[in-house]
Specification:
The complex is a heterotetramer, with 2 copies of chain A, 1 copy of chain B and 1 copy of chain C. Chain A is α+β, with helices and mostly antiparallel strands. The longest helix of chain A has 16 residues. In chain A, about 35% of the residues lie in helices and about 35% in strands. The model of chain A has no long low-confidence stretch (mean pLDDT about 95). The N and C termini of chain A lie close together (about 10 Å). Chain B has 5 helices and 11 strands, in the order E-H-E-E-H-E-H-E-E-E-E-H-E-E-E-H. Chain B is globular. In chain B, a hairpin with a 5-residue loop joins strand 10 and strand 11. Chain B is α/β, with parallel strands linked by helices. Chain B has a 9-stranded mixed β-sheet with strand order 2-1-3-4-11-10-9-6-7, with helices on both faces. Chain B has a two-stranded antiparallel sheet with strand order 5-8. Chain C is an alpha+beta fold. Chain C is about 35% helix and about 25% strand. Chain C has a 7-stranded mixed β-sheet with strand order 8-10-7-11-9-12-13. The chains are: A alpha+beta, B alpha/beta, C alpha+beta. The complex binds adenosine-5'-diphosphate and magnesium ion. Adenosine-5'-diphosphate binds next to strand 4, strand 5 and helix 17 of chain C.
Chain lengths: ~80, ~230, ~750, ~80
């Protein structure tokens, strides 16, 4: 089952990359862009019988390794849900 | 004092730290392999700079799970001295042995240069050979050294004296220009609440010989050596 | 015993047309048929096409490169192995080489530059040497060109991203911006390693029956483009899957460095070679050919990154971070233990044979079976026609008013070619390994050798503007400059490596530039007694018929007997005398001043190599005797710029007061002229006479022109009086300002 | 309008990050995980009247800056679609 994990910088945490992308976009002429945030997109295949089993695994992986709660939020999607 | 320098895959300044402690200071130091769990009876553990596991995903995130880190955590819980330099600092944060996290430099690029550091707390095992307010000239070299922690936690850390080192200018003053990576409150080094675990971005092991640009880093190692239990 | 090699079902038919599509000339294809006595299989065709390419075979350059001197008492290894080696004393050999990664860096600057660093590192540790220092020479288009910033950011990011992560300090380099490189940037990467003199490893296979081990990353479809253009009909699907660029993994490279050096200590390695261009094909065939033996590989055993690679792809893949090892029979397990420790693949994929054939098996069939010599030794060698172009190189016509000296100096310091490159080298770890006595920012880098008093000095230089005016003199001058930079630091030049970047060699003018460049390199190398021990040729740097200016990039290795005697470029004490020593008279030819102000700088002056060598000798002796407080080579921007730079001491900003020519009478050429091999020295007042005799005694022009002053101002001949802080601000901000994009 | 951009390493391109994460997850005991890829997740606000206008902008931004077509693929979603 495919799992997609989205990791984003936490509210209130500096996101220099997001800021840099935003200002580059603006200087490229995309003036109507704001609130840019840059995070991570992690794709994984989990062998699981049910979506809920895959979800449990995904949650554990996020908490153990994929996101750092001090600076990041995460959410995930299990394919086919 | 007996020192152990941990070698993770991708550690780079491990040899330099060993050289500084063993060759320059003449102390007993050895390499500890990340796959081992034994600490070989050392009295201080140094987590060196580098790019452990390529620093893929997040700096220090994967190294934290090395077998040796279990022993390091236990050693720290027992009050043993642990110092993490650069990547070592990042690993300590990921391992929750030190509060906060290190993220990409404000400039988004790697920075290698000598900077001024002010000692904020000289009564720790890592700084006892300095005085509060002393300025140290130390090199930094990192892409992810911007220190962050929640505001309320920072406030408490300041009150407890856990902020040990700060980036300043040559006159010892804080300023935006003197903060090379954009760290919150210009923080360059912090300790845990018990003051036995210390993480810093600057590299004291690269400031131990005059020929290579300065000796201020020795003060950190001398402090630790003088803190032997 | 001859099972006949076969093409695989679905592979395109091999004929003259297919050969042409693979970049082989009709004559070359006929020669292949003749050598193997039949039509090659599709796999074999692919293999020949890369092995006989210019890049691998040096077919246009080989006969000229033979002219280069490669011997001296200090040469431990000349051209022929992965890198050259020079004895630097106390039992150490320095192994070094420079290589281009121009085209990949233009396509994908970050990964192109990164993999360039990775490749040159492998050339060094393949020799058993621990890489201890890197340098790079970069040429970009003009700063105003729309792609330049992107390319600059990517290339510098890639060099740092890779170099920093493997723990090898980047200690020196050069960067130039010129419209001539708008469509062809140059990225030349240098690496130097140290090895105990008896412990060098070789790439010569020995011992039939010895196993061949594949170590490092798994093989993917990276970088098969050279041949892939031909295979569109073969399999459109696989074509789409073939990435055009290689992605580097510096973490794996770091593990590979440690593992290979550790494996070398076991004594179980007979030969080792990195998989560079043409990957498994060139490494396996070259190792066997150098040993006068054959090799047989079972391609099914090659670790793959994804399923479904064909033998053609496996053999031509340029996946990074891979090595091939011939082990002593029976000791494979010892080696595997080492690679396991570092979590790297180490798989036996074949063995060395006696029969001098290069035989590849795949799924029970033979897909290639070629006499070993055919791939390397029998590759074509061309004597391409060379002809001096009829038209004189274009010189510019004066279009601007002559600027005042102060204005000109400011404009020069603001030129990205002259300005501080700190924005670049700040992104490189220049201190890891604890040997960097002098990193980027002075004339040459100085590295101590641990447990020895000795040190080495390094610098890489090039001067395409001079080479465009005169490809011979330009090359001579480039070697002189790099050697002089090293001597300014107090080191004696002992060895040279070079990367010869030129246009299309099939054009007689380009071939002429190349031949003259090689001759210049040869003559200068002889004059300094510094042999050329390694190098690289990069042809076809041109777009739509516009070649780059001839750009031989020269790196010089210097040796210092006593590291404590090293010299930096910065003035040290107020009151010291400032002197210049030079071998010729400056001119504005090929100068930055002429480029900026659009004037005709005229022609290059002759270079007297005996005087150049005397200058180097004087500088080294002066440093050894402790007579020289600072020495700075006058390069782009001439004397005025060099004086300003010497004042930018990071420890203490000082000023200088000097007189040029007859008071008040100095002309632009005195201030900003180049090409005179001039060094600005500062000397304790009491030593001035001794230093004078050091140089005057060698027939060189020496003059005390002023003194270092505490007042931080640069005062020249009463016509220029500028604050150092302001000059330094211009110098340091020129590149960041342009990158910020606010003028 | 919020736009979400997903950037992933192209097929066939080496993804050292993905590999490192995969082997780390496995050594943490998540044996049933495979095919890990690590890419970027970029969030942005685009001022646009219609979703199709936002889509056009997003595509342009991806091609100009957000993805490197030589080594990366991208896709995006416009919120509320
Ligand atoms: N790409 C680079 N990488 C590292 N160091 C560099 C690079 N470009 C320039 N430098 C450093 O900046 C300084 C000035 O370079 P350059 O102008 O080429 O010196 P010179 O004028 O003496 O030839 C030198 O110390 C050089 O090593
Ligand atoms: Mg130069």
């Amino acid at each position: 089952m495919q799992v997609k994990v989205f990791v984003t910088p936490r509210m209130g945490i500096l996101d220099p990359q997001g800021r840099a992308v935003e200002s580059s976009l603006q200087s490229l002429g995309f003036k109507n862009v704001s609130g840019v945030k840059v995070g991570k997109y992690i794709l994984l295949e989990v062998e699981a019988r049910t979506a809920s089993e895959a979800r449990d695994e995904a949650k554990k992986m996020c908490e153990a390794l994929l996101a750092n709660p001090v600076i990041e939020d995460y959410r995930f999607e299990v394919d086919g849900e | 004092m007996k020192w152990g320098v941990v070698r993770f895959p991708g550690s780079l300044d491990d040899g330099d730290a060993l050289y500084a402690i063993a060759e320059v200071m003449g102390q007993d130091a050895r390499i500890l392999w990340h796959k081992d769990e034994s600490l070989g009876g050392v009295e201080c553990i140094l987590l060196p700079g580098g790019f452990s596991y390529g620093d893929y995903l997040r700096t220090g995130a994967i190294a934290r799970f090395s077998p040796i880190m279990k022993s390091v955590a236990k050693f720290a819980a027992d009050g043993g001295l642990v110092i993490g330099i650069c990547n070592g600092f990042q690993i300590l944060c990921e391992a929750h042995l030190i509060p906060g996290a290190l993220t990409r430099n404000r400039s988004l690029s790697f920075i290698c240069e000598r900077v001024w550091i002010r000692v904020e707390n000289a009564s720790t095992p890592f700084t006892r050979a300095t005085k509060r307010g002393d300025l140290l000239r130390l090199p930094i070299k990192h892409g992810e050294g911007l220190y962050v922690a929640p505001e309320d936690e920072l406030r408490q850390m300041e009150e407890r004296g856990q902020v040990i080192l700060r980036y300043v200018d040559a006159d010892g003053r804080e300023s935006d220009a003197a903060n090379p990576n954009g760290s919150m409150r210009a923080i360059a080094g912090v300790a845990n609440q018990r003051f036995n675990v210390f993480g810093l971005m600057p590299h004291p092991e690269h400031a131990v010989e005059a020929m290579l640009g300065g000796v201020d880093g020795l003060k950190i190692f001398q402090s630790i050596a003088g803190s032997a239990r | 015993m001859s099972e006949r090699p076969v093409s695989l079902p679905g592979e395109p038919k091999v004929d003259l047309e297919q050969a042409r599509a693979h970049g082989l000339a009709p004559d070359e294809y006929r020669k292949i048929e003749q050598i193997i006595g039949r039509t090659p299989t599709y796999t074999e065709l692919g293999v020949f096409s890369v092995m006989w390419s210019e890049h691998c075979s040096y077919k246009s350059s080989r006969r000229h490169l033979r002219k280069l001197p490669s011997k001296s008492e200090l040469v431990v290894q000349g051209p022929g192995e992965n890198a050259g080696a020079i004895d630097v004393g106390d039992g150490w050999a320095a192994v070094f080489k420079i290589e281009s990664h121009n085209h990949p860096s233009f396509v994908e600057p970050y990964q192109g530059a990164a993999t360039g660093v990775g490749g040159i590192l492998r050339d060094i540790f393949t020799m058993g040497a621990r890489p201890v220092a890197s340098m790079n020479s970069l040429k970009f288009g003009s700063f105003e060109h729309p792609r330049t910033r992107y390319l600059l950011g990517g290339v510098v990011g890639g060099i740092g991203g890779y170099g920093n992560c493997v723990g090898v300090p980047t200690v020196a380099g050069e960067v130039m911006f010129d419209a001539a490189y708008n469509a062809n940037i140059l990225v030349n990467a240098f690496c130097l390693g140290l090895v105990r003199k008896g412990e060098m490893m070789s790439a010569k296979a020995r011992g039939p029956g010895n196993p061949v081990l594949y170590v490092g990353s798994a093989t993917g479809r990276d970088g098969i483009h050279g041949a892939s253009m031909a295979s569109a009909e073969f399999d459109k699907q696989s074509e789409a899957k073939r990435p055009a660029v290689q992605v580097g993994d510096p973490f794996t490279e770091k593990l590979l460095i440690e593992a290979c050096l550790e494996a070398g200590k076991t004594g179980a390695i007979v030969a080792i070679q990195d998989m560079g261009a043409a990957g498994l094909t060139s490494s396996s065939s070259e190792m066997a050919a150098h040993g006068g033996l054959g090799i047989e590989l079972d391609l099914d055993k090659v670790p793959l990154r994804e399923a479904g690679l064909t033998p053609y792809e496996i053999l031509l893949s340029e996946s990074q971070e891979r090595m091939l090892i011939v082990a002593e029979r029976g000791r494979e397990a010892e080696l595997k233990t080492v690679f396991d420790k570092w979590d790297l693949h180490a798989v036996v994929i074949g063995h060395v044979t006696e029969d001098k054939r290069w035989r590849m098996r795949w799924r029970g069939q033979i897909v290639a079976d070629i006499p070993i010599g055919a791939l390397a030794d029998d590759a074509p060698v061309y004597d391409r026609p060379a002809a001096e172009p009829k038209a004189q190189p274009q010189t510019k016509i004066s279009i601007t008013e002559k600027p005042g000296t102060a204005k000109a100096l400011r404009a020069l310091l603001d030129s990205p070619n002259i300005a501080s490159k700190k924005w670049v080298y700040r992104q490189y770890d220049s201190i890891v390994q604890s040997n960097t006595v002098l990193g980027p920012g002075s004339d040459a880098a100085v590295l101590r050798i641990k447990n020895s008093r000795r040190a080495i000095a390094l610098k890489v230089d090039s001067n395409p503007r001079a080479c465009a005016l005169d490809p011979y003199l330009g090359a001579v001058g480039t070697v002189c400059e790099a050697a002089r930079n090293v001597a300014c630091a107090g080191a004696r030049p002992v060895g040279i490596t070079n990367c010869l970047n030129y246009g299309n060699p099939e054009r007689p003018e380009v071939m002429w530039q190349f031949v003259r460049g090689v001759e210049g390199l040869r003559d200068a190398s002889i004059a300094f007694g510094a042999p050329v021990v390694s190098g690289n040729v990069s042809f076809y740097n041109e777009t739509e018929g516009h070649p780059i200016p001839p750009t031989p990039t020269i790196a010089v290795l210097g040796v210092m007997i006593d590291v404590s005697k090293h010299v930096t470029q910065f003035f040290k004490n107020a009151g010291d005398a400032i002197a210049i020593v030079r071998t010729a008279t400056p001119s504005l030819a090929a100068s930055e001043y002429a480029a900026i102000f659009g004037i005709d700088g005229g022609r290059l002056g002759a270079i007297d190599l005996a005087r150049e060598a005397a200058l180097i000798e004087g500088l080294v002796e002066g440093a050894e005797q402790g007579l020289i407080r600072s020495a700075h080579d006058v390069a782009e921007g001439g004397l005025a710029v060099a004086l300003a730079e010497a004042c930018f001491n990071p420890r203490a900003i000082l000023g200088a007061e000097v007189e040029l020519g007859r008071a008040g009478n100095a002309a632009a050429v005195d201030f900003f002229g180049e090409g005179a091999s001039t060094v600005v020295l500062s000397i304790a007042e009491r030593d001035a006479a001794r230093v004078e005799s050091l140089f005057a005694g060698r027939g060189l022009e020496f003059a005390v022109i002023g003194r270092v002053i505490a007042d931080p101002r640069l005062k020249i001949s009463g016509t220029l009086d500028e604050g150092i802080a302001e000059l330094q601000r211009i110098y340091e901000d020129a590149i960041p300002r342009r990158l910020r994009g606010s003028d």
